[in-house]
Design brief:
2 domains, mainly beta, globular, 5-stranded antiparallel beta sheet, 2 helices
């Protein structure tokens, strides 16, 4: 995932400066696309995509850390009150402008499942903290075959 820093020369309305984009590759070459929808603090992408033929513009894209789970390198204090502790498990997501949003892990005492919960409301962070986050390798477990399909 990337953040645009300047508008696309041929499609500035679709790809203005300050836009979250995904760069991928198909058989006919590289492409760029904007997010389609967000679920569980993760973006999903769909056609149509735009061929990525302008290498100069591609070189201006800011590479972003992958969405996923990380730990905090330091405690965060919030103006509205509240504090997240150093090493807290957080989920990293992005807004449509490509700025990082953190969602802190919560354990719900009243739930029967022994699982962590991540709210759909997070805190936007600055790029310096984005670069300091430490990857937290959490094992992904696929849904069972009986689980309902999504989208």
């Amino acid at each position: 995932m990337y953040r645009t820093t300047i508008p696309h020369p041929l499609e500035p309305e679709t790809f203005p400066a300050g836009r979250l984009v995904y760069v991928g590759r198909k058989e006919d070459g590289p492409f760029v696309v904007v997010p389609h929808f967000n679920e569980n603090n993760r973006w999903f992408w769909r056609d149509p995509v735009t061929p990525l033929t302008d290498e100069s513009w591609a070189g201006t894209l800011k590479k972003l850390p992958a969405e996923g789970f990380y730990t905090l390198p330091r405690a965060l204090e919030f103006e509205s009150g509240g504090r997240w502790l150093e090493n807290a498990i957080v989920q990293l997501g992005y807004d449509r402008t490509g700025h990082g949003i953190l969602f802190v892990a919560e354990r719900r005492e009243t739930m029967e499942d022994n699982a962590l919960f991540f709210s759909d409301r997070g805190h936007r962070i600055e790029d310096d903290l984005l670069e300091e986050l430490r990857w937290a390798p959490i094992l992904p477990v696929p849904d069972s075959p009986e689980a309902p399909t999504r989208h």
